[in-house]
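Handout, section B. The chain below has 127 residues.
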Amino acid sequence: MPRSLVVPLTSALAMLCATLASAAESNEDEVVKGYELLKANCSRCHAITKDDSSKHEEAPPFRVVVTRYPPEDLAESLAEGIVSGHPDMPEFVFQPPEIEAILAYLGSLRPGGENAPDPAPDVPEQK
């Protein structure tokens, strides 16, 4: 390889690595934001981590929900208000940045999902 190409290629490779690292960090931030939103709005009934239990018998754990529905298919329901099969579930409406964070977290709960907090932030280990 000609020496005149080594420096530009090395610089391009360094920029690509920095961009990929930034994207991974950004996704991790989204996952944590999504977890925090679900903890604040949903955890009083639903299990929101990989191994906790739902407090409401009719509220499925989110780790099960993501095996039934791809998280991205829930975006419209999160924006317009989720209608559930049980009458005591409140209606939540989220804004686009919140939806992106929630979807990132739900995606991390899918089998093989990455970046799931394990255990989730500020959640004591279940015994």
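Note. The CA atoms of residues 26 and 82 lie 27 Å apart. Compare this with the example in section A.
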